[in-house]
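Ticket #4471: structure output looks truncated?

Reporter: J.K.
Steps to reproduce: submitted the chain below (173 residues) through the standard prediction queue, then opened the result file.
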Amino acid sequence: MENFDSPLNGLTLGKEYELLNTLLREIKNSVEPIRNWDNAYFTRFLYKYFSPPKPQEETVKPGLIPLSKIKLLYSPTNELGVVLLFGMYHEELGFPYIVKISDKFPDAIVIDKSGNMRTIEFEYLASNFRDHHHSSSQCDYIICWINNLPEDDELRDKVISIKEFIEEKYGER
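Returned output as attached by the reporter:
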């Protein structure tokens, strides 16, 4: 195959698709009994005798909490899951409007129920706020899954734990 000088795992998805289709076409055309089959019949043949592997069953990671009452099967495992849950519950958490979500600090600008603009940083663990060296003076709230800050931590007043909110609202544990 002169057009494909890279190993298969180094090709783009499009080039990989093109290579595999080219190889299948060459094989089909080189075998006399199947040379005249139309492509639909050839595809059915391949699927019947060389079907793709069945997807593996999803296994639940230890420590994940089923959240069946909120249309999310399991608790988040990272910051992105916290952002998703905030998007689902921002109004009930006291923020009727999301103005902007960003990939830079602070992660979000929202309007609270009093009509004031507020800044939010999303974290999986509240303590990650410090680990990421964020400035508490530039952030009004830390929205997290788990509030693991000590009771006497000055940041604790800024923290809203979505896990605690869901546990209170739905009794999920």
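Triage note (M.O.): checked the attachment and the full token line is present. The longest strand covers residues 117-125.
Status: closed, working as intended.
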